[in-house]
Design brief:
The model has no long low-confidence stretch (mean pLDDT 94). The chain has 13 helices and 16 strands. The strands form four sheets. Strands 3-2-8-9-10-11-1-12 form an eight-stranded mixed β-sheet. The N and C termini lie far apart (63 Å). Helix 9 crosses helix 11. The protein is an alpha+beta fold. It is globular and about 65 Å long. The protein has two domains: 204 residues, no CATH class; 116 residues, no CATH class.
Length: 374
């Protein structure tokens, strides 16, 4: 082991036998580890403590409306594509109490809700999900309005990213330039080799977590093997989303017949928005006790696909599935850019995998483009 800690931006090599030491160091630093694990016939994100809880020897096969686990009988910890969950749930939870109001002695007192104060280490964040987190940072932290709940949770996160070694059938991150290699936004980034990890140090906090891991500087041979891992994943990506003519192409085709065609298939179930790592639509729920002296307000995930979401005084602004699907796709790939300066899609493919009827947004965009130019 080197006498000093590795410097930021260094790439070092550790054997997999040292991987648990990283987990132990993170826990000693006060972090709760959240990472991929097996549950309910899927790879999900949950609290873990040991490397044995990772989905070692398992991969996931994904396709339009298709997901299943397959045993590889291998020794890879991160052989899967993307988990069924996104990291959004830990920074922007499905339910978040915002404040409570209580009446005491004739006076109302408003008490803002506090977060759980948990410091979390995200284990195994894929490059596309790194970009998704940065997009939510743009939405909730950067700009005129800052979400205090998101900000507090975000400030307490340690990110251990993993470069992709294989691509899924629904991946199209290369079209959005969000993968398969992590370029920023991490404290540590791993590339998994058969018996070792090549580790890129992304921050001072990441360097400190390497303490006691028997690291050594990666050689040119180590780096070439690591590069081949990501190169292999990139070669496997077949789906393409052309972006050079977006958002103008979508704006110019608001009445295209393809919107009717996709609406005939869409169930408006909102699965795509629930699994999306960037979607942030929400609604508010107010509740009170039976005496009416204690009330609270809770923010709950919602979706532009639900009928009530666009219901306002005087009627519904998007009463049809056609209107709601068009709103979602146009916002994701066009008006999101106008709002935040970047696309709301990272090419993870979750919306394709978990759509019950296999609607593929890359195909829908291409159908609109092709018919519009004929």
């Amino acid at each position: 082991m080197a006498e000093d800690l590795p410097r930021v931006s260094a790439r070092v090599l550790i054997f997999k036998t040292s991987f648990q030491r990283i987990f132990d160091n993170l826990r000693a630093a006060g972090f709760t580890l959240v990472g991929p694990t097996l549950r309910d016939s899927a790879i999900v994100l949950d609290e873990i403590t040991r490397v044995e809880e990772l989905p070692r020897g398992w991969c996931d096969e994904q396709g339009p409306d298709k997901y299943r686990l397959v045993s590889t009988r291998g020794a890879q910890y991160f052989d899967y594509v993307v988990s069924s969950h996104s990291w959004k749930q830990f920074l922007y939870p499905p339910r978040r109490k915002l404040f409570s109001i209580e009446k005491r002695d004739g006076q109302w007192t408003i008490t803002p809700a506090e977060g759980d104060g948990c410091r979390r280490a995200f284990i195994g964040v894929r490059p596309c999900d790194l970009h998704a987190i940065s997009i939510q940072d743009r939405v909730f932290v950067t700009g005129e309005f800052r979400d205090p709940h998101y900000s507090r949770a975000r400030e307490q996160v340690f990110v251990l990213a993993v470069n992709c070694g294989q691509a899924g059938a629904n991946c199209f991150c290369t079209s959005l330039k969000t993968g398969p290699r992590a370029t920023s936004g991490f404290d540590l980034a791993l590339t998994e080799l058969p018996d070792e990890f090549v580790v890129e140090i992304g921050s001072e906090a990441g360097a400190e977590i390497m303490r006691g891991t028997d690291w050594q500087l990666a050689t040119a041979f180590d780096l070439s093997r690591a590069a081949e891992v990501s190169d292999r994943a990139e070669r496997q990506i077949e789906r393409v989303l052309r972006t050079d003519d977006l958002p103008a192409m979508l704006y110019d085709n608001a009445e295209h017949p393809e919107w009717d065609a996709v609406a005939a298939r869409c169930l408006s179930c909102a699965n795509c928005t629930m699994v999306c790592p960037t979607c942030f639509c929400s609604t508010m729920e107010d509740g009170s006790d039976l005496r009416g002296t204690v009330c609270d307000r809770t923010r709950v995930w919602d979706s532009c696909f639900t009928l009530d979401f666009s219901h306002v005084y005087g009627g519904n602004t998007r009463p049809t599935v056609r209107a709601r699907y068009r709103q979602w796709l146009t916002h994701k790939l066009a008006t999101w850019i106008d709002q935040f300066g970047l696309s709301g899609c990272v090419g993870c493919g979750r919306c394709i995998t978990w759509c019950p009827v296999g609607i593929d947004l890359t195909e829908e965009v291409q159908a609109i483009r092709t018919e519009a130019t004929e």
